[in-house]
Amino acid sequence: MPSRRPAARPRATGLPPSVVAFAPLKVDAGPWTVDDVGWKGLSLLRMASAGLPVPPGFVLPVSLCQRLLDRQFGSADLARLISRAVADLDCAAVPFLGSDHPPLYSVRCSPSSPLPGLMPPLLNVGLTDAVMDQLKHQDEGDFACDCLSRLIPAYAEHVLSLAPQPFEAVPVPPESPRQSAERCRRIYLSLTGQEFAPSPLAQVISAILAALRSWDSPRARLARKRSDTALGLAVVVQAMVFGNRDSHSATGIAFSRDPSTGQNEMRGEYLPIAQGRDLFSGVHRPLPLATMRQRSPRMWACMEEMRRRLEKELGEVQDFEFTIEKGRLYLLQTRTARRSATAAIRIAVELVDDGVILADEALRRTDPTMVEAGLHPMLDANTLRRLLAKGLPASPGAGGGRIAFTAQETITRASQGERILLVRQETEAADVAAMAQCDAILTSTGGMTSHAAVVARGMGVPCVVGASELNIDAQRRRLSTPDRVFVAGDFLTIDGGTGEVYEGTIPIVPGELASEAFRLLQWADRRRRLRIYANADTPTEACLARSMGAQGIGLCRTEHMFFQDQRLAGIRRMILCEAADVAGRHRILEELLPMQRQDFIGLFESMEGQTVTIRLLDPPVHEFLPRSPGDLKSLARDLGSSVEEVTQRIEQLRETNPMLGHRGCRLCLTMPEILEMQVQAIVEAGAYCLHWGRPVRPAILLPMVMDDRELAWLVTQVRSAAEAVMRRLGVRLEYDVGTMIEVPRAALLAGRLAPMVDFFSFGTNDLTQMVCGISRDDCQGFLADYLRSGIFPADPFARLDVEGVGQLVQMAVEQGRAANPKLQCGLCGEQAGEASTIAFCEKIGLDYVSCSPYRIPAARLAAARCRL
Amino acid sequence: MPSRRPAARPRATGLPPSVVAFAPLKVDAGPWTVDDVGWKGLSLLRMASAGLPVPPGFVLPVSLCQRLLDRQFGSADLARLISRAVADLDCAAVPFLGSDHPPLYSVRCSPSSPLPGLMPPLLNVGLTDAVMDQLKHQDEGDFACDCLSRLIPAYAEHVLSLAPQPFEAVPVPPESPRQSAERCRRIYLSLTGQEFAPSPLAQVISAILAALRSWDSPRARLARKRSDTALGLAVVVQAMVFGNRDSHSATGIAFSRDPSTGQNEMRGEYLPIAQGRDLFSGVHRPLPLATMRQRSPRMWACMEEMRRRLEKELGEVQDFEFTIEKGRLYLLQTRTARRSATAAIRIAVELVDDGVILADEALRRTDPTMVEAGLHPMLDANTLRRLLAKGLPASPGAGGGRIAFTAQETITRASQGERILLVRQETEAADVAAMAQCDAILTSTGGMTSHAAVVARGMGVPCVVGASELNIDAQRRRLSTPDRVFVAGDFLTIDGGTGEVYEGTIPIVPGELASEAFRLLQWADRRRRLRIYANADTPTEACLARSMGAQGIGLCRTEHMFFQDQRLAGIRRMILCEAADVAGRHRILEELLPMQRQDFIGLFESMEGQTVTIRLLDPPVHEFLPRSPGDLKSLARDLGSSVEEVTQRIEQLRETNPMLGHRGCRLCLTMPEILEMQVQAIVEAGAYCLHWGRPVRPAILLPMVMDDRELAWLVTQVRSAAEAVMRRLGVRLEYDVGTMIEVPRAALLAGRLAPMVDFFSFGTNDLTQMVCGISRDDCQGFLADYLRSGIFPADPFARLDVEGVGQLVQMAVEQGRAANPKLQCGLCGEQAGEASTIAFCEKIGLDYVSCSPYRIPAARLAAARCRL
After folding, report:
1. Does the annotation mark B586 as catalytic?
2. For the segment B512-555, what is each residue's pLDDT rounded down to a tens digit?
3. What distance in Å separates the CA atoms of residue B493 and residue B504, rounded to the nearest whole number?
4. Bigger pLDDT: A279 or B791?
5. How many other CB atoms sit within 10 Å of the CB of residue B278?
């Protein structure tokens, strides 16, 4: 009898070495982990513990195996231990299996996580002439011979380390099992000079030692070296059940639910009269599991019952191995099934419905990227593709179209209904209108936060950036790789989720939030504390954001509103007019005012009274200025000036480091009229909405602040401009004023800034650039080196650099709150949609994060998960 | 008798109002300040307290005057108070002055610091017919009439507020004093309808009230409003002495030492038979004080004695007013003399020699900028100048020459012996060689830390930057202002200490450290704790630095070594060769190695065993690449490539924000060969010096570090490269390894970086750019606004921003030292030479600062002063 007491956990040193027996009686799997008994051992213990039909066996735990490997445990001791364990196993197995012959054994490696290079399972161990005779006597001679001709070659190869080739010659004409067994015996004799006649116990011990030897095989060593976690090896010895016994026997694998779609139906394959690897050998074609329903309704019912119990006991969708012997079902191995993102969400939600798990557990199991993945159009998986190049996956979703090299070309052809792929070395502000109209964007330079990437993500347009293998020659309208050339009008397809670029057209299937995802996100919303806002610049984006579950707009970048043709011309004239020409600027701003007001009315109406945070004009003025000869010419005409003069003036405004130049609130200091116009537009828009009975909640956000005296001046300007409009209109509008914390100095002086404002918005794009000294437009040259060498664990523009930038954010939050307990704090950088960043925001007690609309579902989920 | 007890300090409220009497007996000036008795009152009290010959008098202190102004003190009370004080004064004055008539009085305003718009001193107050008669009786009728004709118009104007014009008509023919007095009486009668006949006491009280009224005159009010300190008014009433009494009488002003040169000789002017303002009236030409020596040796001796006593008592060079009456010398006012920087240093040192003050006091009195000012050539003060424009004073000293617009032109013509003024919109790395050869540099853009400013300061070449009124057209080789045009070869002169640009040639006088400055700096060296290092890139700069007192090189920027023709070509080829062409890079680096080694040998030898901190290559690679068509062509030839290809490759390397781009140690990660070559050159140079018995102390400095894993990698690279060289050469060289802290993230992670290095070098130029988000190359557009509006109290690139950048530096020092108690910390930004920055460095316990050679003397002084 195997010991029924739960064996002392092998980790507790000092206790005598022992094996861990399991089945047929329940054992308590509770205290065991993969580090003690390996993953296969654990799955058997857990199934046995749940009373599932597992053939009895025992595990040599990791601690014991380690002592054997270290030669701290002698072979005589091992022989004694195994002899007793096998005797106990035999006692348990015979009644459990209802067997009329001594059991055979399988010997399997059970590493703490899957590892290549280990010995494959050794089956039918313990088969001797005595057992053969007994089986023949029961008219099962063929079955016995089949087992023997499986055992001998495997034993020779793995236990004796002989070359497998002599056994592999396929005899012609085909043999009977008996002939086959005879041939194996003969070959074994010729290779070893001995008959195949070891005792069952000797076979088991030899197989165990062979399993241990494989731990040090070259492949296993290399794989262990590469692994970043410590691994251990256990060995499982288990009584055999035989899928090859008769026509009521079979072996197979099954998924307890569909791993692609999550549908609540078993999937898998099986093969009658087969054993072990036959299923994958390619000699016999396995049957789809679904056919069992017709072919063997009783077995199917057993399987259904089994998958239900498995899921109930293990709480997760399972990928399990089974064997049917003479119509009786046994489970040999199980593990949590790998599944697609869609399937994972559906399964988690349905497991909650089935009462298997709680909603919190469903949230815990669903990685936020899974929700995001489901949202974007995908390439049809069943189409042949020809990979052309690989860039960075800048904005998820698949898309494609005919190549266009300029913004103009894109707009013209897209408006004629063509699907367009905009191809640029890099995009710039002037491309924004075209970017909104194309199907997908591809650039050869730039990183995950380049202009193209940021804008595309915001718009939800699929985008691949930094595909550096591509040579883009916009002037000659050619895109080339070393061996291929494409011209404008050729068709390409990209996958913005993987960064891949393909030739030609590939069918695209639409992505959408499944109803299960909606339910999951509702549970998430109940759990989370962080508010999730959207970065949205237009009413369209705002509507999209709301449909994704945004609770407000955390960042509306007003500069994007100025890139429309009519406005851009005005902005350009304003920038180029003389510094002293205040009247000229006023005139232009008066033209822009009604358009801005309309923008804000649209946003306010879309958000229906939720917070709309509007950031005043931020970018370096140079971004608005034209570069192409045509644009220069028309601007010169507008200004009544020569192209040379205009070019010279633009040249004067060019900055060496525009990131750190004349931008943000610095523009307000030199041109306060712009601030006044924007505040006027915001307040008038708010008043308009109030007049029509629609609630509004504007928040005005000041960019690039770095000093307390500076902020004091700005807040005064904003408040007095707003006050003037309200007095004129006779309305009272509640609004907040906040400051971006995107310059390190602002974070350092947070305690002085906080009393002047209602909220802090951490702009972690710029903050990361300045704290790390990395220009996101220029980092493609070296950031890859930094990621490859492990200096950076992740792109700091995609995942917040908690050690550096995060430290500063945390300091600023603490000091800001100390100085102004009502201060609201949020994060609006690109990282705001990423799960580990959100966990950090939760940890330091931010009030909200603001990310691009398509990232909102993932953010909602992430914000809930970090509360579990 | 006036009260001899020191009057209770008027600040102590509650006590009855009282006047403060002084002379002829000593009073204790100790408890009084300018806030109690005004600056004139205090100077009289202090002289009287020292027993110097001051006519007796009393002060109406600020507190009393304030009560009078506030009408909290009635006129009857005032009359009682003054009546008693005047009576006491009379008792004291008559014996002291040896007078045979009742004293007259002067009534003077004594504000707490000089203020325009107050009543001028009112002299001869108290003159009545009775006194007139008595003087006439003593044959002093003319003197008496002179006094009366001075009193009446002044009394009418200031006490009665009458217009002064009626008195100003010059009578023809000239009158006798008697006629003059009669005329004044007549005019007074006609203006007031009364004879001039107030009693002496009434005159004094009226004069006091007039003095108080002037506190609220429009000019005084405006000046008080503009003043940033609280001001108060006291009034002094003093017995008159008469420089107009006879031919043995005179009045004058004197400096106790020469205020321009500091020479230990009195300077000043005097006028015999004169009173008060006669000295400045222009009617009589005053005599140089030196003429008194011949004209009146006895008086001169009195004066000499007096200046000695004054300096001894007041401990400072004095600017004093005196009156000689009948051969007797009286002092009427004294104050610390304004003096030139040179004079200030010489005087301070000689006062120590004279035993008047201690060395520490001399240090306290000498502003560090004074030492610096003396070092640079200056424009001859006696030449007419025509100001053309004004820019920023980027590198002190005067210089001038013929205009050259390109580096090539400068080098060619300078090598022919011409004095050249290099004129550029802005300079760039490729101009460095030319900058070293020209006499002065002028740019139209850039700020105090633009390339031109930094490099010029390092070289000690006079430089004016950001002279934005100038339009520089290098292509047409023209420099123009709105009304003038200059071409190449025209002569201009600049003053880098003031930022002024002049037409033509102006004689320039050389500047040098006077011997007194050397002695002062020796005292400073004994006092200071901070070590002063130099930023020096060449042996010439190193020698200059040592002559200025540097204790080592804190920063050698190796990039400057590469800008020589031969090396630049190699560097350019290296940058442009394919990323994978490691062999090609190695070949070029092998060519550069012997040159670098020679550079370092030169530095080590110049510094004779002092620390030489060598920073590995730092700037963005783009700085090395050519722009001019000629250079592009020759580079293309070198590379065997077309100009188009080279231009395209350069374009690919261009960065949007080079400051935050691929530079510093990031180059080491992508091209470790450069680091290896530089370390090899350093170690080989050190070994060479050791071999010849010369001590060396190299320190290797890693630029742009931002991460601990990055630093670990770099330190390993440096140490293993150095180890390899030492093993090969069989030497052992002690060297330090340090990291720049110039990226905010490095400061935030200081605790992790410190254990890996020997020292931190705070690069506050870059740190300021990143912490404040201000590119120093682009800030001219808005930094001026920030300074003007007071948001920034000073240019953060010239004076460390203690609140922001300083906070981060302090944090990093604390965390660094906690993790590595042996860590040395220094600051090597441009601010390191500025006094308040040095005081901050002292406060936070840095070990050294490193500045450009010419700033070292000032830095030595500043480092001492902050220890006093």
Report:
1. no
2. 677 889 999 999 999 999 999 999 999 988 998 998 999 999 99
3. 6
4. B791
5. 17
pLDDT by residue (tens digit) across A574-602?
A: 888 776 778 888 888 999 999 999 999 99
Residues in chain B, overall count: 868
Higher-scoring residue by pLDDT: B425, B10: B425
Question: Is the Cβ pair B657, A660 closer than 8 Å?
Answer: yes
Pairwise CA distance, residues B378 & B362, whole Å: 25
What pLDDT does residue A512 have?
A: 65
Above 80 in pLDDT, residue A340? no
- Check CB contact under 8 Å for B657 and A777: yes
CA distance B256 to A13: 93
Q: Active site includes A586?
A: no
Residue B742 and residue B767 in contact, taking contact as beta carbons nearer than 8 Å: yes
CA–CA distance, A466 with A470 (Å, rounded to integer) = 9
CB contact under 8 A, B748 and A771: yes
B379 vs B375: CA distance, rounded Å = 13
Quote the minimal CA–CA distance from A701 to chain B in Å. 18
Give yes or no for residue A2 having a pLDDT over 80: no
Note whether A345 and A513 are within 8 A (CB). Answer: no
Q: Which of A674, A715, A771 to mutate to test the interface with B (most CBs of B within 10 A)?
A: A771
Is A610:A543 a contact under the CB 8 Å cutoff?
no
Cα–Cα distance measured from residue A750 to residue A729, given in angstroms and rounded to the nearest whole number: 35
Q: Do the beta carbons of residue A611 and residue A556 sit within 8 Å?
A: no
Q: How far, in Å, CA of A546 to CA of A112, rounded? A: 45
What gap in Å lies between CA B798 and CA B395, rounded to an integer? 12
Distance from CA of B710 to the nearest CA of A (A): 6
Q: Give every CB contact of residue B130 below 8 A, 6+ residues apart in sequence.
A: none
Q: In 3-state terms, what secondary structure has residue B295? A: helix
Distance in angstroms (rounded) separating the CA atoms of residues A239 and B168: 133
Query: E strands of A383-445, at which residues?
Result: 387-390, 392-395, 398-404, 420-424, 440-443
End-to-end CA distance of chain B: 44
- How far out from the chain centre does Cα A121 lie? 33
Residues 6+ apart with CB under 8 A from B138: B100, B101
Q: Which residue in A709, A774, A782 is closest to B670 by CB distance?
A: A782
Decide: B402 and B413 in contact? Cβ < 8 Å: yes
Q: What is d(CA B473, CA A648) in angstroms, rounded to the nearest whole number?
A: 11
CB atoms within 10 A of CB B600: 26
Strand bridging mode B57-60 / B233-239 = antiparallel
At A785 the three-state DSSP class reads helix
Beta carbons of A855 and A521 less than 8 angstroms apart: no
Dist. CA A207–CA A235, nearest whole Å: 10
Q: Which residue among B710, B789, B792 sits closest to A791, beta carbon to beta carbon? A: B710
> Per-residue DSSP letters for B133-161?
HHHHHTT-HHHHHHHHHHHHHHIIIIIS-
B552 half-sphere exposure, CB direction, 13 A CA radius? 21
Match 């014009």 to its residue by tokens. B165
Q: What pTM was computed for the model?
A: 0.79
User: What is the per-residue DSSP string for B521-569?
Assistant: HHHHHHH--SEEEEE--SHHHHHHHHHTT-SEEEEEEGGGGGGSHHHHH
A57 has which bridge partners? A22, A238
Dihedral-angle region of residue A846 (phi above 0 means left; psi in -120 to 50 means alpha; beta otherwise): beta
**Chain A interface test: which of B717, B745, B772 (most A C-beta within 10 Å):** B745
- Catalytic residue of the set B65, B451, B463, B560: B451
